[in-house]
Amino acid sequence: MTTACPCIRVLCALVFASTAPHAAAHHAFAAEFDPNVPVLLKGKVTKVQWINPHAWVHLAAVLDDGATQEWMVEGGTPNTLLRAGINRDSLKPGTEIVVRGYQAKDKTCKPACKANGRDVTFPDGRKIFMGSSGTGAPRDGADPTERPRP
Amino acid sequence: MKTPAIVLMLLCAGPVLAADYKVPRTSYGDPDLQGIWTNATVTPVERPDWMKKATITAEEATAWEKRAAEFGERGSEPTNPETGAPDKGDDVGGYNSFWIDAGTKVAEVRGEYRTSIVVDPPNGHIPYKPEAQAKLYALLRNIAVGMDGPEQRPLGERCIVGFGSTGGPPMLPVLYNNHYQIVQSPGYVMILVEMNHDARIVRLGGEHVPPNVRPWLGDSIGRFEGDELVIETTNMNPGQSLRECIRHRVYFSPNVKVTERLKRVAADKIEYSFTIDDPEAFTQTWRGEMPWRAATGPIYEYACHEGNYSLPGILAGARQQEKSGTAGGGS
């Protein structure tokens, strides 16, 4: 069965109390990424592809020998972040990030090696977008009591 | 910051009882449902096993919403990047919770806080026949292991329609992008579903197209009954029998008839209900109800094909695993 991240499954179980299966959002992350190849990537953002169905954050990951390898890391829909006042300029090239995730089963690394961004932070541990913008969690944009846009 | 116009309107107008609300009309006299709406809600389609009641108090609803908000906030708390890579063989996970936008409010319908969108049968569960339940599980198994080509992958993954039943009918809330825009013109109502930017074009009056014509979102004809828009959809595409996503999974037969009702009950709220008539799949006709709330625009394009690296990635990964002898399907 396909799965999304553990946080999503717990979210369903405890919060939304859904009887949903272990299915991903737009697609099955378990079908795309290899559970046997976990990765820890550290490096500078080279670009952000602000595209649907999933945004991709590119970085030049620093290897053990000091060389760099281009990686692209899969996130979620940019529509959600746009509603939270975040846009493609909110994470600028050159920003240092840390990615914890899993490499894609497709390991051809063309045009870049791929991984999912199970946990993407700044070097001090703050979540990207959360730490940089000061905005809160995603919102549905319909509740007058929600925190205002920045 | 720009204060959303809808907030100003609500603050200035003060409380308006539903019974006093006069539904606005278009210039040509139809009830005016136009605007941008969201059906995002904490309330699931089916009632959770631990939730014994169909409705809860306002205090219980607030507590549920608070738990949902706290969970989202916990997912956004800083983590220690020095903990290293995740464990080998673990669930690969998805992405940070800030990408998720599944709603903040318990569904409130006519003053009741609901624990499920399904209201009939009263137990809040979809009344599958055993054979339909078996088809549901078989279809789910197929997408878990079917990697030979794109035709075996789910429609959402292929960017043909949005995932789950976001486009419907019935239109059900999913993990994000739960936004809809209604535009009316004489003789037509158009409902733009943000994901995948699907336009449901409802003809007012007339007959259904011939049964061999099977659009992805079915064939919809509508009528106004007083202030209420009634949409009847048939001719469902067989490929849409399975609607699966992280928040719901539903099976319909291709011969399902879905009757939706949309009634504006306040400037910022539509009551949305649906009836599922499908004797092939269910032991009874079943119904659901939920609110749509006004949302600040704009609605965003979800150009799914534009950057769908996932589908070729999944298929290429499957080919590589076949070559290396490590193919294990999607789970």
Q: Residue-averaged pLDDT of chain A, rounded?
A: 76
Read across the widest sheet of chain B, the strand sequence of neighbours is: 1-6-7-8-9-10-13-14-15
Structural class by secondary-structure content of chain B: alpha+beta
What is the CATH superfamily label of the domain at 26-70 and 98-136 and 155-298 in chain B? Calycin beta-barrel core domain
Q: Outline the biggest β-sheet of chain B.
A: 9 strands, mixed, barrel
In the CATH hierarchy, what is the superfamily of the domain at 35-133 in chain A?
Answer: Nucleic acid-binding proteins
Pairing-aware structural class of the strands and helices of chain A? alpha+beta
Strand segment tally of chain B: 15
Rg from Cα of chain A: 16 Å
Proportion of strand residues of chain A: 25-35%
Spans of at least 5 consecutive residues with low confidence of chain A: 1-24, 131-150
Pair with the biggest interface: A-B, 95 and 108 residues
The strands making up the biggest β-sheet of chain A line up spatially as 5-3-2-1-4-6
Radius of gyration of chain B: 21 Å
How many separate helices of chain A? 4
Distance between the termini of chain A: 40 Å
CATH C-level class of the domain at 35-133 in chain A: Mainly Beta
Q: How many β-strand stretches of chain A?
A: 6
What report would you give on this structure?
The complex is a heterodimer of chains A (150) and B (331). Chain A is of the alpha+beta class and 150 residues long. Chain A has a domain at 35-133: OB fold (Dihydrolipoamide Acetyltransferase, E2P). Chain A is 17% helix and 31% strand. Chain A has helices at 6-16, 29-32, 78-83, 130-133; strands at 33-49, 56-62, 68-74, 96-104, 113-116, 119-121. Chain A has a 6-stranded mixed β-sheet. Chain A is globular, with a radius of gyration of 16 Å. Chain A starts with 5 loop residues before the first helix and ends in a 17-residue tail after the last helix. In chain B, the strands form 3 sheets. In chain B, strands 1-6-7-8-9-10-13-14-15 form a 9-stranded mixed beta barrel. The relative contact order of chain B is 0.18. Classes of the chains: A alpha+beta (150), B alpha+beta (331). At the A-B interface, helix 1, helix 2, strand 1, helix 3 and strand 4 of A face helix 1, helix 2, helix 3 and helix 4 of B.
